[in-house]
Design goal:
2 domains, 6 helices, elongated, binds zinc ion
Length: 111
């Protein structure tokens, strides 16, 4: 099963602006939250502007994938503090076996 974040990423990957209603049609009412997660967790650079494709009564935004941050860049900008849980993770991006985050569904532990 494909997660909602993955679905959103696939939609945005064509580099075009996608209106929020498109995500609603994909049954992702919390697309804003998911997009923020993609920014934070996957390092995706996603731009947002007021929708210019439709004439919405209220404010509706559209999103576009611009690029992706380098992993090294992510570490310095995106939440280093909550990732720096053990020395191994800082260096190898892999938790130490003793680390309490080691059970997170990340990569297999090598230590
Ligand atoms: Zn729209």
């Amino acid at each position: 099963m494909i997660g909602q974040r993955e679905t959103i990423k696939q939609v945005l990957e064509d580099g075009q602006y996608h209106c929020g209603t498109e995500f609603q049609k994909l049954f992702i009412p919390e697309y804003r939250t998911r997009i923020n997660e993609l920014r934070k967790n996957a390092g995706l650079i996603i731009e947002k502007r007021r929708c210019q494709q439709h004439k919405h009564k209220g404010v509706m935004q559209e999103w576009k994938l611009v690029g992706q941050k380098e992993r090294s860049q992510m570490n310095t900008t995106a939440g280093l503090s909550d990732k720096a849980c053990c020395a191994s993770y800082i260096i190898f991006q892999i938790h130490e076996r003793a680390c309490q985050k080691a059970t997170a569904p990340a990569k297999p532990t090598l230590f």
